Amino acid sequence: MRTPKECIALIKEYDFAIQKKFGQNFLIDSNIIEGIIEAAEITKDDCVLEIGPGMGAMTGYLLESARKVIAVEVDRMLIPILQDTLNGYDNLVLINDDILKVDIASLIERENDGRPIKVVANLPYYITTPIIMELLEREEKITSITVMVQKEVAQRMQEGPGSKSYGALSLAVQYYAKAGIVLNVSKNCFLPKPDVDSAVIKLDIYEPCERPVKTENPEQMFALIRAAFNQRRKTLLNSLGNAQELNYTKEQIAEALARMGKSETIRGEALSLPEFAELSDILSQQ
Fold first, then answer.
1. At which of 188, 210, 232 does a domain end?
2. What's the confidence (pLDDT) of residue 140?
3. pTM for this one?
């Protein structure tokens, strides 16, 4: 296993140019890496999907701890470095692709006989939310997601109604998983150094019967949530009534809000996850 310092040396050896378009900030602090592995609770029974292995600093630790590691890296220039860094491991599957274009369910079926996996990642800041949402929607194939993200984003995942950072991501995470920040990480732990600090958050995926709310139509509930926060400065009556993906009149929405004891001037950021579920069910009955 190579140390983070040795991985830094590979940058010079391979004359690698760090790509801003991929949001590349390589984690080089071995203490943080060990903390992530511990938080993820990786065992020899586990198959792990690592998104964005980068220089392979954390991948080596994962390979030592897990039965199999599937590493998906979008930057083809990193593949030769990873092959060198991880030479000698027979439990690695290295894939050069964009994780948002990978059929995760098929990948899990092929590489782990369809059994659930764990996800570990140091996510690029600019596509954190799309990746998290894609993973959450595959919850039946994933038991936990332990990811390094921008500190502000990690906090957003745990926010409740009334906060400025409360939004669709907060509600999705809280519906699918129990979330907890396990590490705060200084910008000094990366190469190159990012502008902001980071945090490691672990999402333990709920079994469907364990979810904190029950709703007749989860797809509609999330359509309501998206519409509410796409125009968060507007009232729910207007944001939902103007949403093309919804088929409810403002009169129906006003009636549903009245049944909940809510004002027509209320905004989406004031509703909790159980209240969005209730609103969805009332509208479905209409």
1. 210
2. 74
3. 0.89
Tell me the residue range of the domain where 247 lies: 218-285
- The CA-atom distances, in angstroms, between 70 and each of 51, 167, 234, 282 are 8, 31, 43, 43
Burial degree of 192 (CB within 10 A; 0-12, 13-18, 19+): exposed
* 76/111 same-domain check: yes
Instruction: Give the tens place of pLDDT for each residue, 24-40.
Output: 677 878 899 999 999 99
Helix and strand element counts for the chain (H, E):
12, 9
* End-of-domain residue from the set 169, 193, 210: 210
Alpha-carbon 188 to chain mean position = 23
- For 209-268, the pLDDT digits (tens) are 999 999 999 999 999 999 999 988 899 999 999 998 999 999 999 999 999 999 999 999
Contact predicate 283/258, CB 8 Å = no
Please name the residue ranges forming H helices in 54-189. Answer: 57-65, 79-85, 104-112, 128-136, 151-157, 168-176
Task: Give yes or no: residues 200 and 256 share one domain.
Answer: no
CATH number for the domain spanning 241: value is 1.10.8.100
**Two structure tokens written together for 93:** 């599957």
Number of domains in the chain: 2
Q: What is the distance, to the nearest Å, from the Cα of residue 183 to the centroid of all Cα atoms in its chain?
A: 16
